[in-house]
Amino acid sequence: MEQNELFARTELLIGRDAMKAIASKRVILFGVGGVGSWCAEGLIRSGIMQLTLVDSDRVAVANINRQLPATTKTVGELKVEVLKRRLEEINPQAEITAIPEIYSAESAASFHLDQYDYIIDAIDSLSHKVHLLLTASRTGATLFSSMGAALKMDPQQIRVTEFRKVRGCKLAAALRQRMRKGGEMPHKPFLCVYSEELLENRGNEALPQADERGSFRKAQTNGTMVQVTAVFGFTLSGLVVQDICNKALKSDLPTQ
What we know:
This protein is an alpha/beta fold.
């Protein structure tokens, strides 16, 4: 199957030059859970040909309600490996690299962030997220980040704004607080996907919290639904594609 067949409808909308630009970019995505997995799908279906997936977690039963790699047949498998198989079925010519590791201050150098055109943050751990955002903001790559997608039901309330302007999101507030306490803020602006909606868990507190076998312990497990996490993820992928297309269009404009 030819590449131009796979993306005929996309090229019809954005043009051949933009399509070539999308195919030329290197993207690294940290976190392939409820948000990141759908972002990865959106990127590959939009023509991204070089994508690196970073996540150390394995599929758990409690992931099935919202995460793309999670089915009753994939429980126990590494999320990045499950997702890689799916993405290669969508486009066998795409170069998908699966790294089943945790991003942290100790492992940061091993990811060689300077080699990428786009860095996408979709991880949950506060300390790891702070380090990634600060480190990525020092590179020449374009950075996009997901804020908190839990305790939300209404996808129509999902918004995009610059990190410093995010309001009504406890995760964003906690990130900025920790950055200020550490004496370092991001070195350049970057866009975030977020929602000001904030609901409460209404489930039976007597029930045991769902075991998701994560690579770090969460202080609290909150309810999450796919119609929100998927829109977060697709919005992130859309930001990447729009940015590439906008830059391709500007490069085609004649200089004065």
